[in-house]
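Dear colleague,

Following up on yesterday's call, I've attached the two folding results inline so they're easy to grep. Please treat them as preliminary; we haven't cross-checked anything against experimental data yet. The first protein's sequence and structure tokens come first.
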Amino acid sequence: MDDKAEKNKGAKDKRKVTIEIHKSEDFRQIYAIGALGGHSPYDFRISFYNDSPQRFGPQNNTHVMKRQIETELILSPLAALELSRWLNQHLQEYEKKFGPITRPRTKAPDPKSTDNSSNIQGYT
């Protein structure tokens, strides 16, 4: 490699990239209590949802919950990996500052109870 090519290579390596972040006009925030999804060889899909009780009736001890999918995120495998790393880093920082994140404790089921319903996140 000649001197000129070496200088050009060095100049390219020293360039700084500035990223400007802008929110689109239709940007909106959602709060989700959970996520579900899966993957294919091509992408990862994560749907974020909220649950709300619809009916709690005495008939057969039936409880009906409405699970509303709020939005779905579709990521390339590389973007999913980067999201995982970013999220793990931020979880570690959060726990270092605020302490471990724990799941809410649920009371043990009463063995005499005939209620076989399972707890849904955020609702008992």
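Below is the second protein, in the same order (sequence, then structure):
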Amino acid sequence: MLHYQRTEYGKLKKVLLCRPNYLKIHTPINVIQEKHSVNNIDTELACKEHDQFINALEEEGVEVVLGHNHERYPYEVNTRDLGVTTPKGIIFGRFYSPFRWGEHRLIEQTFQENDIYIYDKHTEGTFEGGDFMYIDENTVAIGIGIRTSLVGVRQLENTLSDLGIEVITVDFAEEYLHLDMIMNVIGEKTAVICEEALPTHMIDKLKEKDFTLIKVSKDDVFLHKCNLLSIGDNTIISHNQAEDINEQLQQLGFRIIQLDLKEVLKSGGGPRCMSFPLLRE
């Protein structure tokens, strides 16, 4: 079966998650983990929160595939970073941090057991899925911060070159981890952004396409207020740290599923980071 995706807001049918069974901050790999490294993470509570996430998805009719996990890879919960699903199929990237090298092998095993086909794998440069954002069916933004290199972007451009998709590169400060921490397209013409963290050309492109922009501050970025998950039909899976954003989205007609997440967010990722869409209508 071909697994594909061409927007951020189409109906989500199937998704890859990984339970945080071994989630602990051993060596911090982002500024959020550094903040919580002393008190660390309550793994049991993180698993309970993640179970809420699974239940919310399944109650909305989304098929959840759980990836194999291993104590050697404590940060697997953020499955988004594995790569991206495209109209051609699933593309695996290459992790920037050595602490995540090897996660792809576990997910390859998961995919083999579930008859999920991988279209391509990156062998040069670095590319993580948190830096890939569909603007619409014909436009994607790819972030270049610390996790994705220009070489990785060029490989994606080559893969997508015959689809007529415009690729916009977005440079941003390393502290923001991934593009989806500072920009998130969560509706056909709606995005949550941190304006001061994005280059002018990206904001201008969204305005040119008549997007409604919900703005968050730099401090809000590290509370994951951009990092929400659209599951289609104007339905968003969010969390209680983004309550003010949830209210603004509701005013625009979105239905919000607000989860009580706190412990699992200490790993550095919100609902979008914790999900790897396999199939969207």
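For the second protein, one point worth flagging: The chain has one domain: 12-280.

Best wishes,
A.L.
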